[in-house]
From TrEMBL:
<dbReference type="InterPro" id="IPR002129">
    <property type="entry name" value="PyrdxlP-dep_de-COase"/>
</dbReference>
<protein>
    <recommendedName>
        <fullName>Glutamate decarboxylase 1-like</fullName>
    </recommendedName>
</protein>
<dbReference type="InterPro" id="IPR015424">
    <property type="entry name" value="PyrdxlP-dep_Trfase"/>
</dbReference>
<dbReference type="InterPro" id="IPR015421">
    <property type="entry name" value="PyrdxlP-dep_Trfase_major"/>
</dbReference>
<dbReference type="InterPro" id="IPR021115">
    <property type="entry name" value="Pyridoxal-P_BS"/>
</dbReference>
<keyword id="KW-0663">Pyridoxal phosphate</keyword>
<keyword id="KW-0210">Decarboxylase</keyword>
<comment type="similarity">
    <text>Belongs to the group II decarboxylase family.</text>
</comment>
<keyword id="KW-0456">Lyase</keyword>
<comment type="subunit">
    <text>Homodimer.</text>
</comment>
<dbReference type="Pfam" id="PF00282">
    <property type="entry name" value="Pyridoxal_deC"/>
</dbReference>
Length: 543
C-alpha cells in the first residue's frame, strides 16, 4: 500500500515517531494529544491488515488503527454508562444474517480495508447488548469494570497460554497467588489446598465431580466406568443444570443424579438428603458425592452447608460446593456467615465473573487436598511438560486441567483485586445487598406486585410477579395462573424491543413465570431500581 494514499507522508511519519514519546518523559502533553487526533482522523480506506505490524513500515499505521479501535471502544463504554442510551438495538437472527445497513456477516475471499474493519467493529457493538448498562439486570454476570477491561486488553495483547511457566511466567505465579488467597478466604488455612482457573462455573463443577470420583476410584483413569459400581450423586432440585451436564459428560448419566427436595426458600433439606442416600444404598447404588449450592441461580438460596457436611462425613461422601454465584459473598464480613461450613467442603466452585464483576470469564475450582487435580488429569505429555526444565516445574500447572491450551483468566481478577483491595469488593457486594433489600421493600408495598418469598432476601436475587390491573383482584386459580404465565414473557419481549431494561424470567416447579431481579452490576443505582418498577408497570398495565 502507498502510505500517501491514506494520508501519510514520510515527513508525517517521522514527525509522528518523534511525537510519540512516553508522556512521563515529555511535558508536551498537547503534542501527544495532537498526534492522537491526527491518528483518529486518518482515513484507512486504502490500508489493509497486511500493512500493519509486523510489516516493515507498519508501526505508525498500527498505532493509528489501534487508536481508532480504542476510540470506538471508549465511545461504547461512555454509552454503556449513560442511562439514556438503549441497552440494545434488537434485531432477529435472520435480520443479522441478511445484513443490516451494510453490516455484512458473510466472509469473502478478498481482504477488507482497515476502514471497513473499523465500521465492522462499530456495528458489532451497535447490534450487541450493553451488559454494563446500569439497567441491565439480565444475568448473574453483568457490569463493566474498567480495570477488569484493562486487564482483558493486556491479556489479549500478551496472548499467551497458561499451560506452562515457560511461556506465562507472570500469569502462572499470579494464578498461584490468587488460588492461595481464595482458598484462605474459604477457610482452608491449615490445609495444603489446590485449584485451577477453568472456563466457567459449569466446567469447574465438572472438575469437582471428576475429582470426587477419582478420589474414590483412582482406577477409573485407566480402566473407565466399567470397573465401577453404579455410582450416584446428589444435588438439590434448585442446583445448577451443569451438575447433570457433568454427569452426562463423565459417563455417570443424568439418571444417577438424585435431586434432593428443598424447603420453601429453595434450600436443600438435610433430612431429605439423608433419606435419599439411604434409599439409593438400599437400591444397590453407590453414593459418592453431594453437591451443595451456595447461592442458587434463580432464588439465590444457600444450602445448609454444616448439616450437609455432617451427612457427608457420616456416609463418607465427597462434598462439593457450587458457590459459582455465592462465592463472592465470602468477601463480605456482614454476609459471609451464609456460607458457614464451606470450609468443610472437599471442593468449591467460585466464579469471580459473577458477583465480583470480573469480565467474563473467570472461574476457579478449588480443592482442599493438594495434588488430586494433577493426579486425576495429568498425562505428562513430554513435548510440553519436560521434567528436566531449568525452573521449578510445579509452576507448569497445565497438566492439572482437562485442556491443553488455556486462556489467561487471572490477570483481570488480580488487577481488580489490586485496584479495589479485598475491602473494595466487600463495599461493592454490601451495596448490592442493600439494593436488594430496598427493591424487596418497595415491591412489598405495591399491590400489583407479588414477591415469590415474603421474607427479606438472603442474597441479591429478588423474585416476583407483576399483576396487570385485569388480573390483580382475581384469586389464585389454574385459569388465573395460565394468564399470569404469559405476562412476564410479554413484558420482557417489549423490554427487548424498546431496549430500556433487561431482566430475566422463568417458571420454577409449580410457580408460573416470574421475574428474577439480581444485583451484580456496579453501575446500578436506586433510581435504576425505581425505573425498573415503573417500566414494568408501563409495559404491563394493558396486558
Ligand atoms: C449456581 C451456578 N452454578 C454454576 C453456574 C454455571 O456457571 P458458568 O455460566 O460460568 O458456566 C451458574 C450459572 O449461572 C450458577 O448460577
Amino acid at each position: 500500500m502507498d502510505l500517501k494514499e491514506c494520508g501519510y507522508s514520510l515527513a508525517n511519519r517521522k514527525q509522528m515517531r518523534k511525537k510519540s514519546i512516553h508522556p512521563c518523559q515529555s511535558a508536551d502533553k498537547d503534542v501527544i494529544e495532537e498526534t492522537h487526533t491526527e491518528n483518529l482522523m486518518t482515513n484507512l480506506s486504502n490500508a489493509y491488515a497486511s500493512d500493519l505490524l509486523p510489516s516493515k513500515e507498519g508501526k505508525d499505521l498500527t498505532k493509528c488503527f489501534l487508536l481508532r479501535v480504542v476510540n470506538i471502544l471508549l465511545h461504547y463504554i461512555e454509552k454503556t454508562f449513560d442511562v439514556k442510551s438503549k441497552i440494545l438495538d434488537f434485531h432477529h437472527p435472520h435480520q443479522l444474517l441478511e445484513g443490516l445497513d451494510g453490516f455484512d456477516l458473510e466472509l469473502s475471499d478478498h481482504p477488507e480495508s482497515l476502514e471497513q474493519l473499523l465500521v465492522d467493529c462499530t456495528d458489532t457493538l451497535k447490534y450487541g447488548v450493553k451488559t454494563g448498562h446500569p439497567r441491565y439486570f439480565n444475568q448473574l454476570s453483568s457490569g463493566l469494570d474498567v480495570i477488569g477491561l484493562a486487564g482483558e486488553w493486556l491479556t489479549a495483547t500478551a496472548n499467551t497460554n497458561m499451560f506452562t511457566y515457560e511461556i506465562a511466567p507472570v500469569f502462572t505465579v499470579m494464578e498461584a497467588v490468587l488460588l492461595k488467597k481464595m482458598c484462605e478466604i474459604i477457610g482452608w488455612r491449615e490445609a495444603e489446598a489446590d485449584g485451577i482457573f477453568s472456563p466457567g462455573g459449569s466446567i469447574s463443577n465438572l472438575y469437582g465431580i471428576l475429582v470426587a470420583r477419582y478420589k474414590q476410584y483412582p482406577e477409573i483413569k485407566a480402566k473407565g466406568m466399567t470397573v465401577l459400581p453404579r455410582i450416584v450423586l446428589f444435588v438439590s432440585e434448585q442446583g445448577h443444570y451443569s451438575i447433570k451436564k457433568a454427569a452426562a459428560t463423565l459417563g455417570i448419566g443424568t439418571d444417577n443424579v438424585i435431586e434432593v427436595k428443598c424447603d420453601e426458600r429453595g434450600k436443600m433439606i438435610p433430612a431429605e438428603l439423608e433419606k435419599n442416600i439411604l434409599q439409593a444404598k438400599r437400591k444397590g447404588r453407590t453414593p459418592f458425592c453431594v453437591v451443595a449450592t451456595a447461592g442458587s441461580t434463580v432464588f439465590g438460596a444457600f444450602d445448609p452447608l454444616h448439616d450437609i457436611a455432617d451427612i457427608c462425613e457420616i456416609h463418607k461422601l465427597w462434598m462439593h460446593v457450587d458457590a459459582a454465584w455465592g462465592g463472592g459473598l465470602l468477601l463480605s464480613r456482614n454476609h459471609s456467615y451464609k456460607l458457614g461450613g464451606i470450609e468443610r467442603a472437599d471442593s468449591v466452585t467460585w466464579n469471580p465473573h459473577k458477583l465480583m464483576g470480573v469480565p467474563l470469564q473467570c472461574s476457579a475450582i478449588l480443592t482442599r487436598e493438594k495434588g488430586l487435580l494433577g493426579a486425576c488429569n495429568q498425562m505428562q505429555a513430554e513435548y510440553l511438560f519436560q521434567p528436566d526444565k531449568v525452573y521449578n516445574i510445579n509452576f507448569d500447572t497445565g497438566d492439572k486441567t482437562l485442556q491443553c491450551g488455556r486462556h489467561v483468566d487471572v490477570f483481570k481478577l488480580w488487577l481488580m483485586w489490586k485496584a479495589k483491595g479485598t475491602y473494595g469488593f466487600e463495599v461493592q457486594i454490601d451495596r448490592y445487598m442493600e439494593l436488594a433489600k430496598y427493591f424487596h421493600k418497595v415491591l412489598k408495598k405495591k399491590d400489583n406486585f407479588k414477591l415469590v418469598f415474603d421474607a427479606e432476601p438472603e442474597f441479591t436475587n429478588v423474585c416476583f410477579w407483576y399483576f396487570p390491573p385485569r388480573l390483580k383482584h382475581i384469586p389464585k386459580s389454574f385459569e388465573r395462573d395460565q394468564e399470569l404465565q404469559k405476562i412476564a414473557p410479554k413484558i420482557k419481549a417489549q423490554m427487548i424491543v424498546e431496549g430500556t431494561v433487561m431482566l430475566s424470567y422463568q417458571p420454577c416447579g409449580d410457580k408460573v413465570n416470574f421475574f428474577r431481579m439480581v444485583f451484580s452490576n456496579p453501575a446500578t443505582r436506586q433510581t435504576d431500581v425505581d425505573y425498573l418498577i415503573d417500566e414494568i408497570q408501563r409495559l404491563g398495565k394493558d396486558l
